[in-house]
Amino acid sequence: MVEFEGLALTIKDWAPILVPGLLQTAEYTRAVVRAYDPFLPEDAVEGRVAARRARAHIFENPRKPQYWAVLDEMVVRRPVGGPAVMAAQMEHIAAMARRHRIIVQVPSLAEGANAGMTGMFKLMTFEDAPPLAYADGSETGRLQDDPAVVTRSTLSYDLIGGAALSPGVSLALIEQAAKEYEDAQRTRSEDRDLA
Fold it and tell me: How many degrees, rounded to 5, is the angle at CA 46 between CA 43 and CA 51?
């Protein structure tokens, strides 16, 4: 799947659980890897962090891929790695959106169920190849080029995005979450200093 990301003209990520790998900071990735496999040796953790960060080199090209992420509000609210990690992660996403490198939307929790409740997936289009859908799961991922699957996944993505907050309101929500995490980290540090 990694090789396809580098060739894609467009990438659309639906993320109901975690920040998509292409947008993760090293600290966020480290927290996810540690939570998933707490017994993993440090060098293996750092290898996974480096591999995930290397994927983000695709954003060095200012024109492609065009990247659109829809992040469930729980992705923004779940404090993976603690307040400092989440503040940096949310600021990273916001900075990419402010630079017009990505579009990000957040469906409000108040909306309830959505068309993406079955899990994470990614849609990719290419210049000289048919579009692909990639479904991500624990210990496995499945790349699909079946037109019916790609069409259904595209419809699901459109339904999720259509019910989500606008990109501008989503960016404001992400920036507000970053500020709340920064405030929580500051309070935590002050409490430690007083103890």
Answer: 125
Question: 71: helix, coil or strand?
Answer: strand
Q: What 3-state class would DSSP assign to 85?
A: helix
Q: What is the mean pLDDT of each run of 10 residues along the chain (195 residues)?
A: 89 96 97 95 96 93 92 97 98 97 94 88 96 83 92 96 96 98 87 71
Return the CATH architecture of domain 2-194: 2-Layer Sandwich (3.30)
Is-contact 156 115, C-beta < 8 A?
yes
Note if the pTM is more than 0.90. yes
CA distance 22 to 59: 9
What is the pairing mode between strands 66-71 and 102-105?
Answer: parallel
Domain ranges of the chain: 2-194
